[in-house]
Amino acid sequence: MEYIKAFLVGGAICAVVQLLMDKTKLMPGRIMVLLVVSGAILGSIGLYEPFAQWAGAGATVPLLGFGNTLWKGVKKGIETEGLLGLLKGGLTASAAGISAALIFGYLASIFFQPKMKK
After folding, report:
1. Is residue 118 in some structural domain?
2. Could you tell me if residue 56 is inside a domain?
3. Dihedral of the CA atoms 70, 45, 12, 73 (nearest 10)?
4. For residues 102 and 94, is the Cβ–Cβ distance under 8 A?
5. Sign of CA dihedral 77, 79, 83, 84
6. What is the pTM of this model?
7. Domain span including residue 86
8. Is residue 117 part of a domain?
9. Sequence-ordered list of residues with C-beta below 8 angstroms from that of 83, at least 6 positions apart, any chain
10. Domain count of the chain?
11. What is the pLDDT of residue 91?
12. How far is 81 from 89, CA to CA, in rounded Å?
């Protein structure tokens, strides 16, 4: 049942993003920023954690979850290191995910010879 819930929640988030892309003039990069900032804001007001606990990977894997991870890192960084934690807390918390994206993206480019769109 957890897999079905994660699939449905993740799919609903993707459907909302697709609607934003189809029905507005927002560019994909701005939508991505909107998702990350929304996740950080929802995390900062305490709404994202209960939602993520309920939805599982369907809520933690998309960009909303990345924004929440950044927020948690910043919050922890400020508590432990003060102003310096504000600057480095988010990157420290999300370093594994960012590194994995870079490494797997590079490996995929080696195996699949990417080409520019025409």
Report:
1. no
2. yes
3. 10
4. no
5. negative
6. 0.79
7. 2-112
8. no
9. none
10. 1
11. 87
12. 9
Q: Does 13 map to a domain? A: yes
Residue 48's contacts (CB-CB under 8 Å, 6 or more residues apart) are 39, 42, 59, 64, 68, 71
List pLDDT tens digits, range 67-97: 999 999 999 999 999 888 888 998 889 898 8
Q: Which two tokens stand for residue 33?
A: 């920023």
**CA dist 86 → 11, 68, 91, 117 (Å):** 32, 15, 10, 39
Q: What is the pLDDT of residues 41-64, one digit of tens each?
A: 999 999 999 999 999 888 888 888
Within a 13 Å sphere around the CA of 18, how many CA atoms are in the beta-carbon half?
6
At 23, the pLDDT band (50, 70, 90 cuts) reads: very high
Mean pLDDT of 25-37: 92
One-letter identity of residue 96? A
